[in-house]
Write a structure and sequence with these properties.
CATH architecture of the largest domain: Orthogonal Bundle
CATH superfamily of the largest domain: MetI-like
Radius of gyration: 28 Å
Distance between the termini: 58 Å
Largest sheet: 2 strands, antiparallel
Number of domains: 2
Number of strands: 2
Strand content: under 5%
Number of helices: 13
CATH class of the largest domain: Mainly Alpha
Strand order of the largest sheet: 1-2
Structural class: mainly alpha
């Protein structure tokens, strides 16, 4: 009886190594296939994103004019940033573009989406969606060329119709205040269709039963929209705001076609300024330092957006 309850002697951990299971031929084939599928994305990321980022970081620490080899200068280019008054001006312009883009593009896009989402024939909904979204399909350079003709002071159609209202011709492209406004108008007109389409898709996913129940309880349209609709589409709002911020920080084509950054630096953006330093002044090192500051600003703003989203973005449980 005692032998039946005798415990086996403990085994040493060193003597009981577990052998790893050998993957089968099918498992190895699936692994190779998975690597092949992700290889194009990984190679594209390394070649077109990570590689240029590392190169820009290196060039920002050098003095390089394309002709002579890069000469390492340490942090001299970054110290030079603090004494560049033009850089401060173009950053102010860019921040104005970002604020205007976030407010106007998302505000008008949401308004159009709400109007399109109202009860109307399906074919009419498709027409409005196509009309508002079409500018997003056209290259921004072509759109800017068309708007440049529309904004001409003496021959532009905008001032022609303003004349019927008794308004004097506006110098849209050659005055410090109105030139920046013209850039914002073109940027909003071109990009509002994309945000509208995202908002329409989000609004169509809001359960109608929630709105009907709130209306039965006596809630008005504004209360229903603020308390039910906005929380339900908060993920779409967060996506559109994030994309708009990143895009507005990189505004370039519309500025260079409409005003070429003028008059003076009143409409010049950061991307346009660093392109000028790189390809007009051939100051690659300093232009790379400017690009790294822009990268840091966009990264910081994006991180802040992802941090604060927990307070207002609602996810379905």
């Amino acid at each position: 009886m005692a032998d039946q309850f005798t415990a086996d002697p403990p085994r040493s951990r060193l003597g009981t190594r577990r052998s790893r299971p050998v993957p089968s031929r099918a498992a190895r084939r699936e692994t190779r296939t998975a690597y092949l599928f992700i290889a194009p994305s990984a190679i594209g990321f390394i070649v077109f994103l990570l590689g240029p980022l590392v190169a820009a970081l290196w060039f920002s620490l050098t003095e390089y004019d394309i002709i002579s080899p890069p000469r390492f200068v340490g942090l001299d280019n970054y110290i030079r940033l603090f004494s560049d008054s033009r850089l401060g001006a173009v950053y102010v312009n860019t921040i104005i573009y970002v604020v205007a883009a976030v407010v106007l593009i998302n505000g008008i896009g949401l308004l159009l989406a709400v109007l399109i989402n109202q009860h109307m024939p399906r074919w009419l909904t498709y027409v409005f969606r196509s009309v508002y979204f079409f500018p997003s399909l056209v290259a921004l350079a072509y759109i800017a060329i068309i708007w440049q003709a529309l904004f001409q002071k003496d021959t532009g159609i905008v001032n022609y119709y303003l004349g019927f209202l008794g308004i004097e011709p506006v110098n849209w492209l050659n005055s410090s205040g109105m030139s920046r406004t013209s850039v914002i108008i073109v940027d909003v007109w071109r990009n509002v269709g994309f945000t509208m389409l995202i908002f329409v898709s989000a609004l169509q996913e809001v359960p109608k039963e929630l709105n009907e129940a709130a209306e039965i309880d006596g809630a008005g349209p504004i209360t229903v929209f603020r308390r039910i609709t906005v929380p339900m589409i908060s993920q779409a709002i967060f996506f559109n705001v994030t994309i708009t911020v990143i895009g507005a920080f990189q505004i370039y084509e519309s500025v260079i076609v409409l005003t070429n950054g003028g008059p003076g630096d009143s409409t010049r953006s950061v991307v346009m300024y660093l392109a000028e330093k790189a390809f007009s002044d051939f100051d690659i090192g300093y232009a790379s330092a400017i690009s790294m500051t822009l990268f840091a600003v966009i990264l910081a703003v994006t991180i802040v957006q992802f941090r604060v989203r927990r307070a207002w973005v609602h996810y379905e449980q």
